[in-house]
Amino acid sequence: MKHFVPRALSIVALGWGMVACGGSDDGFQFPGASGTSLPYEVMGKVANAEKTELRNGSYGSSLAPHPTLEGYFYGLSDRGPNAATEPTRTPSGIIFITPEYTPRIGLFKLTPEGKAELVSTILLKDPKGRPITGLPNSQFGGTGETPYNLDGSVVSLDPDGDGVKGFDESGLDSEGLVALKDGTFWISDEYGPHIVHFDATGKEIERINPFAADPRNKAGRTLPAELSTRWPNRGMEGLTITPDGKTLVGMMQSNLYNPTSAVGSINLTRIVTVNIETGATAQYLYRQDAAGLANSEIVALSATSFLVVERDTKFYGIDTGVVRKNIYKIDLGQATNVDRSNAALRSANAALSVHAANGLLVDGKTLELVVKDGGTADNYAAGWAQLAALGIRPVAKTLAYDAIASQKYPHDKLEGMWVIDANRLAILNDADFVIAPDNLGGIKQKYLYDGKADSNMLYVVKPIAPLY
């Protein structure tokens, strides 16, 4: 395996790995709470009255430190510049401003001044080495989203050459990132959801998803089938790996539409663990502070302890009401494994059974329906109490950082997180290529409360208490 070695670094080889040595030539510092912006380039301007800019370099979907080079980190883009269609369009869908865009990983280094510089870019590719797009899947992970061009026509691009225009079976709406010491990456997405393993050049090696019929999965290794009921654009937002490198841990952004979209928006979402070697899975429930919030990142502190982002999509200083941009410390140790593989749980209570497509059931109802039918009083307390009476406990959580209270966090999408040490935490936002839907079938520039255009900002902050 070849490792990328920045010229400015002095490197000492340690077996298969490398570490950065200190010294005046390779010094760096972390930015403070005022942050530093990630670099970008203008992809072009839209021919509207505003002349909206598309800014390439929106690497805010996830954040991961380089596993061997100090002061270096990776950022991940999503499916590219896009926006929801106007509410009246039938069928509704997603406007892809540049449907040929390839999701990518950016490698950045911090400078002695605490700024971020882009070092290199890795384009994601399918198993044949062809650059993928962010267009939806047609079969294994389709979301029902119709892909439109900005002019209102349906996208006709056929990037994977299967004859299905406007779709890409290898396409990803990439959101979670794990960088390994061997130079490879695991990425989770919002379509399947898929968890895909890429080599150091960005070429797909293998994948794990909820579709047993997908030949790209290794025999007997799939995600729980019920995860395929995620609602569009609310898939597996966060991905991490345990410190021993054996278990991937993914977090769904919101509740599943399990069994159907009639579930609506509730405050239950799921965490799934996957043993890389055996494929064994486990699932745990997470109770959000309110229905409709999003869990957009997860980072491992230990085998059972993690940090997770829980947020809304509001802007501080623009939107009214409570604005939430919180980071919680959670522990799976005392939570209940609700995966169908947990036969002991079912044997302890006759009310519990398993459905092939929808997972664990309570008297024939999915866990999402149990909470839904608990009503809205006290945040679905009755539904959660019913689960507790059956011995089903969600993960315990403790507030680790409140970005609104601590820094008046101005961005809508806190999505990247990097644990530097027990007392320092780096956070990164997704700027969405600095565009937003105008609800009229087009796009507009994305601005903050101070009138400035949004940007990917890396902040280093102090948690409420030491993280470990």
From TrEMBL:
Span of domain Phytase-like: 62-433
SUPFAM superfamilies the record matches: NHL repeat
TM stretches of this protein: none
Pfam families xrefs: Phytase-like
The name this protein goes by in its record: Phytase-like domain-containing protein
Organism the protein comes from: Acidovorax soli
